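Possible regression after last week's pipeline update?

I re-ran a chain I had predicted before the update to compare outputs. Posting the input and the new output here so someone can diff against the archived version. Not blocking, just want to make sure nothing changed silently.
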Amino acid sequence: MNEIRKAGLKHLVTAGAIALLIEAVMFWLKDHGWSIAGIGWAIPAALALTGLIQLVSGVPFLELSNRWDSLKGWQRGILGTLIVIVAVALMMLGFFAIAILFLS
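New output (post-update):
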């Protein structure tokens, strides 16, 4: 595993853990009568997603924009559509898995 992917994995794990910890604290406070509404987990979750992109692509996150812009328009269109289709399919698979676990 190259250094870029290792850095991406490190970002994914640490920022994801921080996001989950913040969400758990907010859930615990809500259970104990504290009514707080917040999305404090969103920034660490966004950092975790940048780590995931870096892990999957093997390209530093800030360089990814230059590589995307260097593609031809039709290539960006096809690749962007493919990314959306795969993302929606994975989300639906997750929803179905959760539904099967909790409804059966």
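Follow-up from reviewer: compared with the archived run. The helical segments are 3-31, 42-57, 61-69, 73-103. Marking as no regression found.
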